[in-house]
Write a sequence for this structure.
């Protein structure tokens, strides 16, 4: 074949690869196209979370040359936020994005994959997930629900929450009705408060109307986006309840198995990429939003007193012990988590922690 003919043949092959029913080269069959739906627990285009999902989908569509197209539905557009798990499990949507602790009604053990109070930072969670056996346990737990989960975002250390009363001792938590999901909510309950779980979009109105007394959400970037600083006086830190919460992407298992290997790889790589990119975005934007909150001076930004944190940590241990005693799956996951955390803490103490202390302000 002459050079010109070879080039022309190559151009046809390339054009064909982008279309349907095309031959994409030696050993590959027709390039089947997949049109999927992705449902999220986040409000439409919500900064960091909702926009992160849009970036995830853009990456998958670009890397697959349009062979895997995904239409994103924010909370309420196809199903309400807290129906994401069932919707992906049943295959009504092929993908979902949210937080595993929203699904504790399905399996209590799921909470351990989002955040354990006083648990691990984002970097430590990634270490456990990718190199400490966490992801294997996560995928094993979700198999019974016909789901394949991936870490797909992490907000980093959260804030402790918004309050309209000072928190000087555990007595100040008595009777406090607070939006705080997952195991953190269990800790609050045992400390004398009343935890409620609300999807993000409902939090501001609930706080402003007084149907809840307090709330945690994420950190300055997202909390300011909801206007929470206009409905509470005190903003407490640190977010003991969520030190490095993992956001999850779930894929319906049948849909996953129907994908050719290259598209599976693209989905996995894109989830891993957004996992890092979201964390980077939260680091950058939380800092900017905190500066803005401080400059405006409308809210008091305070640390929980050390005695309150000590008490909450003691209660958190009890909550975890009870969980692992009643749920064998949670026990297995917690064993892995606790062993990893013990090892990670030794390294973090003389690396991140020591370096941050040495750096000063
Ligand atoms: Ca939170």
């Amino acid at each position: 074949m002459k050079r010109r003919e070879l080039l022309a043949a190559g151009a046809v092959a390339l054009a064909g690869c982008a279309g349907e029913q095309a031959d994409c080269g030696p050993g590959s069959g027709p390039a089947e196209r997949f049109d999927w739906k992705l449902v999220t627990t986040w409000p439409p285009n919500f900064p960091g979370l909702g926009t992160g999902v849009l970036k995830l989908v853009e990456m998958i569509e670009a890397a697959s040359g349009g062979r895997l197209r995904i239409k994103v539905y924010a909370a309420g557009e196809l199903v309400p936020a807290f129906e994401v798990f069932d919707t992906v499990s049943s295959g009504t949507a092929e993908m979902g994005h949210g937080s595993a602790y929203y699904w504790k009604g399905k399996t209590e053990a799921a909470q351990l994959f989002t955040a354990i109070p006083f648990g691990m930072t984002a970097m430590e969670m990634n270490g456990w997930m990718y190199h400490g056996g966490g992801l294997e346990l996560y995928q094993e737990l979700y198999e019974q629900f016909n789901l394949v989960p991936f870490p797909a975002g992490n907000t980093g250390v959260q804030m402790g929450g918004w309050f309209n009363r000072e928190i000087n001792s555990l007595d100040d938590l008595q009777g406090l009705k607070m939006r705080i999901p997952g195991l953190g909510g269990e800790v609050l309950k045992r400390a004398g408060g009343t935890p409620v779980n609300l999807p993000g979009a409902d939090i501001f109105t609930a706080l402003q109307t007084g149907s809840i007394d307090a709330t945690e959400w994420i950190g300055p970037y997202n909390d300011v986006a909801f206007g929470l600083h206009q409905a509470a006086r005190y903003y407490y830190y640190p977010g003991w309840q969520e030190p490095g919460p993992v956001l999850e992407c779930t894929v319906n298992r049948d849909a996953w198995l129907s994908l050719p290997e290259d598209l599976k790889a693209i989905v996995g790589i894109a989830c891993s990429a957004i996992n890092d990119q979201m964390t980077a975005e939260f680091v950058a934007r939380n800092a900017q939003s905190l500066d803005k909150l401080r400059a405006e001076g409308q809210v008091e930004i305070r640390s929980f007193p050390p005695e309150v944190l000590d008490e909450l940590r003691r209660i958190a241990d009890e909550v975890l012990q009870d969980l692992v005693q009643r749920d064998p799956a949670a026990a297995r996951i917690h064993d892995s988590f606790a062993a990893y955390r013990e090892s990670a803490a030794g390294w973090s103490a003389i690396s991140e922690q020591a370096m941050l202390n040495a750096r000063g302000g």
In short: The longest helix spans residues 261-296. Confidence is low (pLDDT under 50) at residues 1-27. Residues 158, 216-218, 242 surround calcium ion (CB under 6 Å).
